[in-house]
Design brief:
The protein has five helices and nine strands; from the N terminus they run βαββββαββααβαβ. It has 200 residues and is α+β, with helices and mostly antiparallel strands. The protein binds iron/sulfur cluster (2 copies).
């Protein structure tokens, strides 16, 4: 079974937020909710200052603290490593939101969406927006991946800062790329073993 992951090259990210918007449109996410955000950091003082952009999303952790705390088994990991939330089972208790050390889950408080029929206009309308009261997060665009496509954020990135694929795929295995550029996951001390790694 293929195992999926993403490598983000921070040096290539120009902070355009094309990925943020592509994700919002793809998933028709509710108001104020973004499954991916581009965080910004400034270091130093002018004129010797530098701004770094860090595209953040669910890390689809190998050891996800959000999954075992879910009392209804709404949070689960697919065989291919994608961590999902079954919105029909989610009771919105917030245990997973508290458990995620990356702050990558949120409860839907305002269910108004971009497309008012509650569905996206892309990929067979497969991905209905999550209803009010449930926890929601990035799902690695599994509806696209299942059709052989890459996530919307990856397809949209104008600088190819985001690379999606199989860790041990026959073509361009992510594992080789990660080793070559010493890609690292965020917060390694949490022991979550993220499937999203960063090249600095
Ligand atoms: Fe769960 Fe957070 Fe890891 Fe995503 S980043 S799998 S929500 S612990
Ligand atoms: Fe960075 Fe690419 Fe997202 Fe633009 S689309 S903010 S370059 S990751």
């Amino acid at each position: 079974m293929a195992k999926y992951g993403m490598i983000v090259d921070i040096k290539k990210c120009i902070g355009c937020n094309a990925c943020t918007i592509a994700c919002k449109v793809e998933h028709n996410t509710p108001n104020e909710m973004h499954y991916t955000q581009v965080l910004e950091y400034e270091e130093g003082e002018f004129p010797n200052s530098k701004r770094t952009f860090l595209p953040a999303l669910c890390n689809h952790c190998e050891n996800p603290p959000c999954v075992p705390v879910c009392p209804t088994k709404a949070s689960y990991t697919r065989e291919d490593g994608i961590v999902l939330i079954d919105h029909d089972r989610c009771i919105g208790c917030g245990a997973c939101i508290l458990a995620c050390p990356y702050d990558q889950r949120a409860r839907v408080e305002d269910d108004r969406t971009v497309f008012h029929d509650g569905k996206t206009v892309f990929v067979n309308n497969a991905n209905a927006a999550p209803p009010k009261g449930v926890a929601a997060k990035c799902d690695f665009c599994y509806h696209r991946v299942d059709h052989g496509d890459v996530p919307a954020c990856v397809e949209t990135c104008p600088t190819t800062a985001r690379i999606f694929g199989e860790w041990d795929g026959a073509e361009k295995p992510l594992r080789e790329l990660a080793a070559k550029y010493e890609a690292k996951g965020l917060l390694p001390e949490k022991g979550t073993e993220p499937n999203v790694l960063y090249i600095e």
